[in-house]
Amino acid sequence: MNRRIKNTLITLAFPVLMFLIMEAVCLIAAGRHVIDFSTNLDLVNLVRNTGIACAITYALSFNLTSGRLDLSLGAQRLAGTVIGSNIALALGLSGVWLLLFSLTFGLVFGLVVGLVFVWARVPPMVLGIGMGLILESVVYVTSGGVGLNLFGVQGITILSEAYFTILVVAILLVVVLYLVAYTKFGYQMRAIQGSQRIAQNSGINIFRHAVLCYTFAGGLVGVAGILDAAYKTQMAVTSGNASSGPVVSNTFPMFLGIFLGRWSNQAVGILVATLTLRIFAMGLAKLQLSEAMSNVVNMFLYLAFLVYLANENYFKKRKAWADRLVEVQEKKSKLGIPVEA
Amino acid sequence: MKKIFALLLSMAMILAVLPLTSLAQEKYIIGVAFQNVTSDTEIQKDYYTNELAPALGMEFIFSEAIKDTETLVTFIENCYAKGAVGIINYYTAGRGRGAEAADQYEMFFITQASKLDDATLDLEYNLGNCGASVDGMARAYTAAMESVLADGENHSVLMCTTAAVGQVAASHYYSTQAMLETMQNKYNLTYSKSIDEIINTDSPGEVDTGNPNIKIFLVPGTDNDKTLATISTPLQSGDYDIFVAVSGYANYTSAIAEVERAKNMDIKVVATASIEKQTLTGFTTLDPLGNPILNAVILNPLNVANAFCAAAIYNALNGGAEALKDADGNAAQLFVNPWPCPDAETYANIAKLDTEHDTYVINADDLQRLMVTSNPDANHDSYAEYLMELADIDAIIARKIK
Measuring CA to CA, how many Å separate B109 from each of A1, A28, A304, B66, B269? Predict the structure, then answer.
């Protein structure tokens, strides 16, 4: 079989398998389908939630794959969305303009965090906490503590429409795919992911690259933020870095996406992983589990996946070690060296 | 000699006047610990700052959203460092620990909650609670439910009971109980479990009503954002034509509108709201079928509770702490009655309240009745009596709206 077709089938197998598993579980346990095709409501929800989560996961992947966990990403999402959208609303703009303003302000806040990172050389997690707290406070002050309220605002319905979400995700996919796979930026990213020191010694400006990563990530979470706020009609201010919650919860699709990227590439892998996990979440919702139980199931699956990732070569390594022992013993016996039992 | 005498006299006068001057300028610093920071928080802040502060000689320090007890205690500590002498607390889950912390710093403490924390009743500086009346909320939700069920048709209800489990928010528990009882009486339902068991189940699920034509689905949870994902399944079934939230409703409206459009059905919405622009928008904005998004609300008179809490602390600071406690000398529970609002026309009048000095339900003039310095008889019973008077929204409108 053509390798490309094989890889495509393996990649698509994940959401399909997840759907089949959850469909069986939901039918057996709750007597209902994981996706009710009698209306388009479940599909619209799936598309919307996948789109929002996918944008956040792409944002996470820019820095996390290079070893930088940016804990201010949630605050950038909050700041980009609330400040950008409030300015757009103050200018009498609505609809797609909110998206563009959130994107722009997300890029700006990402750029600011990136520049501070390069200037201060503080470990990314520490910087992320500090910048997160600062940005949350900025949002609080600039919005008078209200955040973003879109309830009753005309023209925002388009941002919650499935076709619009698909369009946005398609554009994001193409942009991220192009950036990561076909540009100098992408090649540098892979070099830095391999070894930051070697990448720097070979002439890559790792600091400029980091600033670009932070900037792109900021823009992406800005997009995710406004899509989410448009559906919920509001985005409340937070404090104490509580804004990082929705971002950190997307580390699972990011790791799964990188894993799936083996059969496609990182951008496609993340989209498929996000879709897979949204189907899983939808199944849990259909099972009507309590919030606590849903969290337990989600986190257990996440942990199990991380354990698998950490040990996926365990049996290969054991076999290689056993083969090596046999080889050594044969060599010793050939050389007449006594072999220990 | 005269000059020296005049100089000494002047200095004596200045020294005598200086403390008076500083006394006149001294203000009580009070911390206000908000549980949520939303659009109605700004309305409350305006009221605290523009009406209560000058009338009571207070200065308020406002918190950001407090979501855990640790943050509440930190806020209390920070307020103490800034010279605060009292705390008005909205974070109900932390009221016990908050009362202990405030007592440790000798700061008067009052919470906007409907259920006392038994362990801290006898603390000297804990004044108790002033929160939504559980009976009042129950009556209001009963009235709202009766108004949406009044057409004589069969209706099925989806209830978001946020924080009702375990009476984390006691008023939410009693509101849910009232609605379940209303449905039971209206349709002669026979629940397979007790109403208490039904409310205290922490998983979402359909209630066994014993009547296949009447469905009730309860969605428990800790906050509206998280329950949004849970309501999708029952909502999308098209079985439920009434949606009730014991808290806010705004973030559910897109999900409800999508179902109305897809199923071509009207879903009536009943929820708790405040006197603010968003409530008027809810009543005047039409859903995809041309009906108002909001059909009935239970209005929470936020500034009434704020006035009573601030006045209670003012009295405590002026030697009236004991008078505010109950007959056993323990921290007391005061109840604020909500105002049921069945339609847009009623709301149009209510919306004129709480916008400026003249229309505040309790303005600086009304506060005199609550302050021990102007009304020495102000005590627990007189507070409770005044709160009962404020349950009559028609009387308030007649008095305040010219």
Answer: 74, 53, 47, 16, 36
**A232/B39 touch (CB, cutoff 8 Å), yes or no:** no
Helix (H) or strand (E) holding B268: strand B268-273
Give the chain B residue nearest A294 (alpha carbons).
B203
The DSSP element (H or E) to which B206 belongs, if any, is strand B205-207
Give the ipTM.
0.80
CB contact under 8 A, B220 and A289: no
Radius of gyration of chain A (CA): 23
pLDDT in tens, B16-29: 545 444 444 578 99
* Complete domains list, chain B, with CATH: 27-132+301-339+355-400 (3.40.50.2300), 135-299 (3.40.50.2300)
Q: B146-182, pLDDT tens digit by residue?
A: 989 998 899 999 999 988 888 888 889 999 999 999 9
Residues in chain A where the model's pLDDT stays below 70: 1, 340-341
Q: Report chain A residues whose CB lies below 8 A from the CB of B64.
A: 140, 145, 237, 239-240
Average pLDDT for residues B97-103, to the nearest whole number? 95
What is the distance in angstroms between the Cα of A147 and the nearest Cα belonging to chain B? 7
CB proximity list for B323: less than 8 A, separation 6 or greater: B315, B372, B378, B379, B380
Per-residue pLDDT tens digits for A113-159: 999 999 998 999 999 999 999 999 999 889 987 889 898 888 888 99
Residue B24's pLDDT is what? 47
Say if A37 is an interface residue toward chain B (CB within 8 Å): no
Question: H/E element holding A209?
Answer: helix A206-232
Select the residue from B45, B217, B232 to test the A interface by mutation, using most A Cβ atoms within 10 A.
B232
User: Nearest 10 degrees: CA dihedral of B61, B65, B70, B74?
Assistant: -20
Which among A68, A96, A73, A69 has a CA at the least distance from the CA of A84? Answer: A96
